[in-house]
Structure formats: structure tokens, C-alpha cells
């Protein structure tokens, strides 16, 4: 990777980190989830970045993948365990990071610490030539030391420019073999911890969408929306909320694009044993001697 590119990954990482910590302070009893999300996203745009994906809020038994819609009226409550996951890009160079807060409580302090320490254990071993299975092993060991389970079907991922999940997955469980990391790889590591079953699933609409394909649709406004989605988000996930800046009747045209198989939503991923879930995430640059945490 050339020095200019490395610098862009670092800039994106820093802004993702700043936005995450700006957002953390807004997660308080009685605050509206929609307001918090919009303030975080405005912070990113005001500071020269764009969103790599809609800001995720996953509360209590939700493991991942939910963002408020333009009509959401949910508020945070005392005792909520909230995963905040923020992704920023600058010119396609992405920073992805997440943390967990428990609102006015300390029932899950240890579970939050378990995800943070599992992430640190992964950072201790990640380097060029190391297989992703070794990272998963370190993560699982640490989580089990705390007496919890890792979520087996949520993984970290290699990142490339404009590509959030580029081939390699980083498990939170022991795995034999698997891909090896290379010098210059950008990876996100994100251990999820639970006192439930250790798996997530579900079908509900998360309000997070992605463009599946470009194809002809016999509707002028829906076609216009499809092209705008392609040109603005460049294959990255997007929110229903964002589309209202493009069209007044975006909701209706989004439905048309869904029915035509052009756009799909990501499902909300609930913990299948109804456990509480915590998460920590950093984006790393892999080097021959180890790694550099870009979102620190
Ligand atoms: Mn993330
Ligand atoms: Mn991620």
C-alpha cells in the first residue's frame, strides 16, 4: 500500500472513532434513537466524512443490524444494553468501530468488559501470516474465561475500498485453518458476547438496505431512485431515512425496487436464546510485525 492510501485509511479510522465517542455520550435514558442516530451521522458529514453504512443501534437481545427508520419513535431506557456501531468512509476508505453501553446500570459491566478484552486478545495476535482461526481461538478463550459465549455466526471481516466485507471473515470461535492475513490488509475485528445461545437469526426488516442489481424497471421515479442509490452509495449499505433527501415519495419507490428484486433489506439479527449481547470493534491495519489499530 502506498503512503497516501495508508493515510486515507488512518483518516477514516480517526473520524469513525471520533463519531463513535461523540455518539456514546448521547445514549441516555429517554433520548430518542432516531435523534441520536441523526446527530451522529450529521457529525460525520460535518467533519468531512460519509457513512459507510447506516449507524447501527442494537439494543439488549438484538445482536446486530438495526437502524431507526424515518418514522421510528423508540427511546432509550434505563438498563438498556446498547451496541453502537459506526462506519465512516472518506473517498471509499472505511473505518468501522463499535462499543457497548449500559444505560444507568452495571448488571452487564463484566459482559461488556469480556467483549473489549476479547478484542484486545485478538489485537495481540493479529499479524501478517496469522490464520483467522488463531484469532477466533484467542477471542473464544477470552470470552469463555469470563463465563460467557461468543456469537458464532457474527464475524469480523476484511475491508477494501468501497467494500465492507471483502472475502475474509474473522470468526469469534476456534476454527481450523482458514485464510491467513497479509501485510497491508485492513480488517475489522468484532467479538460479540452473550449469556444466551451464541447464535443470531431473524427476518424482521432492519431499515438497512443494499442494492442487489441494476435492472430495468418500468417506472420512471423508481428508476431514478435506483440510479441515485447506485451513484451515491456505491454498493455500500444505506438507510431508508437517507432516501427522503433524494425524493419526497422515496418510501413508495423503495417498495417498488424491493418488489422488483433490485433492493433487499438486511434482517435484524436477534440472539436466538434471548440472551443479552455485547460487542466491541476496531479496524486494524495488518503489518508484518503485528498491526496498527486505526480506530483507537
Ligand atoms: Mn461495525
Ligand atoms: Mn464490522
Number of helices: 7
Radius of gyration: 19 Å
Low-confidence stretches: none
Q: The CATH topology of the largest domain, please?
A: Creatine Amidinohydrolase
Q: Give the helix proportion (percent range).
A: 25-40%
Structural class: alpha+beta
CATH superfamily of the largest domain: Creatinase/methionine aminopeptidase superfamily
The CATH C-level name of the largest domain is Alpha Beta
Report what the structure shows.
By secondary structure, this protein is α+β, with helices and mostly antiparallel strands. The chain has two domains: 3-198 and 273-293, Alpha-Beta Complex (Creatine Amidinohydrolase); 205-267, Winged helix-like DNA-binding domain superfamily/Winged helix DNA-binding domain (Arc Repressor Mutant, subunit A, Orthogonal Bundle). The protein contains seven helices and 18 strands. The strands form five sheets. The protein has a five-stranded antiparallel β-sheet. Strands 1, 2, 4 and 5 form a four-stranded antiparallel β-sheet that branches. A hairpin with a 2-residue loop joins β4 (81-90) and β5 (93-102). α5 (220-233) packs across α7 (250-259). The longest helix is centred in the N-terminal third of the chain and has 22 residues, at 3-24. The protein is globular. It starts with a helix and ends with a strand. The model has no long low-confidence stretch (mean pLDDT 97). The protein binds manganese (II) ion (2 copies).
Amino acid at each position: 500500500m502506498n503512503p497516501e492510501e495508508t493515510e486515507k485509511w488512518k483518516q477514516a479510522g480517526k473520524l469513525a472513532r471520533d463519531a463513535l465517542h461523540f455518539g456514546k455520550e448521547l445514549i441516555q435514558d429517554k433520548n430518542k434513537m432516531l435523534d441520536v442516530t441523526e446527530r451522529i451521522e450529521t457529525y460525520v458529514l460535518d467533519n468531512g466524512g460519509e457513512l459507510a453504512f447506516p449507524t447501527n443501534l442494537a439494543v439488549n437481545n438484538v445482536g446486530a443490524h438495526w437502524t431507526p427508520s424515518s418514522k421510528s419513535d423508540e427511546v432509550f431506557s434505563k438498563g438498556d444494553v446498547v451496541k453502537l456501531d459506526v462506519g465512516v468512509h472518506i473517498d471509499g476508505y472505511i473505518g468501522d468501530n463499535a462499543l457497548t453501553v449500559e444505560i444507568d446500570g452495571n448488571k452487564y459491566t463484566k459482559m461488556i468488559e469480556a467483549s473489549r478484552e476479547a478484542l484486545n486478545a485478538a489485537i495481540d495476535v493479529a499479524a501478517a501470516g496469522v490464520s483467522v482461526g488463531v484469532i477466533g481461538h484467542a477471542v473464544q478463550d477470552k470470552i469463555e474465561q469470563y463465563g460467557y459465549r461468543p456469537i458464532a455466526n457474527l464475524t469480523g471481516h476484511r475491508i477494501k475500498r468501497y467494500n465492507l466485507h471483502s472475502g475474509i471473515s474473522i470468526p469469534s470461535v476456534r476454527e481450523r485453518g482458514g485464510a491467513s492475513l497479509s501485510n497491508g490488509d485492513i480488517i475489522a475485528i468484532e467479538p460479540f458476547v452473550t449469556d444466551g445461545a451464541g447464535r443470531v437469526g431473524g427476518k424482521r426488516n432492519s431499515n438497512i438496505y443494499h442494492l442487489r442489481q441494476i435492472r430495468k424497471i418500468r417506472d420512471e421515479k423508481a428508476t431514478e431512485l435506483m440510479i441515485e442509490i447506485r451513484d451515491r452509495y456505491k454498493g455500500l449499505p444505506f438507510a431508508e431515512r437517507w432516501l427522503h433527501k433524494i425524493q419526497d415519495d422515496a418510501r413508495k419507490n423503495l417498495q417498488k425496487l424491493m418488489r422488483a428484486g433490485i433492493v433487499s433489506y438486511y434482517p435484524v439479527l436477534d440472539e436466538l436464546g434471548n440472551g443479552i449481547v455485547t460487542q466491541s470493534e476496531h479496524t486494524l491495519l495488518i503489518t508484518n510485525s503485528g498491526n496498527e489499530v486505526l480506530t483507537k
